[in-house]
Design brief:
Layout (H helix, E strand, L loop, with lengths): L12 H5 L12 E4 L5 E5 L7 H12 L1
Antiparallel strand pairs: 1-2
Amino acid sequence: MLPFTFLSDKEKNVSKAYGTKGRLWPSRATFVIGPDGLIEKIYKKINVNTHAGEILDDILAKK
């Protein structure tokens, strides 16, 4: 079990609120939200082959 929650946005309400709603589909972005509910980091340019490692490296560097 992961110590965080993933979000599915079927209704596209969150993509609208976070400014990622595109013309045909939402643009790919990752928002890291801290325990206090504040956005800690936004990843807008995503390479699907390396993105998970990039996030993990950033999270581990903060510890």
